[in-house]
Amino acid sequence: MPAITIDLDLPPGITITAYQRHADGHGFEVSWPLPDRCRCDRCGREDKAYVEFRERVQVVRDLDLWGQPSFWVYQPPFRRCPYCNHRQFLIPPFKRTDASYTYRFEQQVLRLLIGSSEEEVARRLGISAEMVGLIVRNQLADAQAKQVDPQRRITDVGIDEISLKKRHKLYATILTDLTNPEQPEVLAVADGRDEAAARKCLEKLAFQQRQEVQTYRADMAQAFHNACRALLPKAKPVVDRFHVAKLFNKAIDEQRKKNHPGVQGQAVEGPAEGVSLADVGVPPQPLGVVWARQAEAASAVREAPPAAGAVRAAVTLPEDL
């Protein structure tokens, strides 16, 4: 029987115990080390953890695999306090309380929001726009207390804006570690898309870390470059091809609208710019029957004399044209 080996990048301490393919998705049964002692949330007493497992399994969304959604499946562990009989569930280290997705799925949503909106990311991942908004709000709240490990070596970063709502001026700035391009990681998130938001993200890095950054990737907005030049003195700017192509297409589209105003319903009477007003010449009609309307139209247009200085080039046309 043929076997397929799948290489997965798992958080520390997470183990896969089983796998099952379901329709267009992937299910992985996972486990993690459980604590020996626990403190009760109600009475605050600490005692040995007598862990039990709920019969009904819990399913949470994780990163996509081969362009298809993958899920982590586990039996929720819990303990009962021997003093107050309070049942307390043990939250896995890879997700937040009352969330149906992992932490790294949240970061994937943030990365997909670069250049997109909540509705577009929701359609792409098959989730609701409300879930995308909740993930962004949780990440913004976590960013207030989140600190980047000062021992972490960071050589390349990316700073971008994300749009939270279409046709609404709701934006956030996201700082991403691009030292390993295959595994980008979100470092900081801040409200707004101005220079102050960019500085707030960059200041999450220690002074020595900012000195070691070699390149930063950003769009062509001046606010981000001002912040990076001030806080990343040794880094060189790199503009993504996506942003260059976006501005190029925008400029071409504006010129198209100017050259074809009639298509947009903005036609202006007057001569075309850069083209001299010349008489219209009508070539001789071919032999045969000429319809009455064609004859009347031809009589209304006078034949023009050859333009002075005109250059004629001899062109040989193929016989089967």
In round numbers, the mean pLDDT is 82
The main sheet comes to: 5 strands, mixed
Overall 3D form: globular
Strand order of the largest sheet: 12-11-10-13-14
Number of strands: 14
Radius of gyration, in angstroms, nearest whole number: 32 Å
Please report which band the strand proportion falls in: under 5%, 5-15%, 15-25%, 25-35%, 35-45% or over 45%. 15-25%
Oligomeric form: single chain
- Identify low-pLDDT runs: 277-282, 307-318
Element string (H = helix, E = strand)? EEEEEEEEEHHHEEEHHEHEHH
The amount of helix comes to 25-40%
Count of DSSP-assigned helices: 8
- Give the number of domains: 2
Structural class: alpha+beta
Distance between the termini: 61 Å
Structure in words:
It is a single chain. By secondary structure, this protein is α+β, with helices and mostly antiparallel strands. It contains eight helices and 14 strands. A hairpin with a 2-residue loop joins strand 6 (58-65) and strand 7 (68-74). The longest helix is centred in the last third of the chain and has 19 residues, at 241-259. The two termini are 61 Å apart.
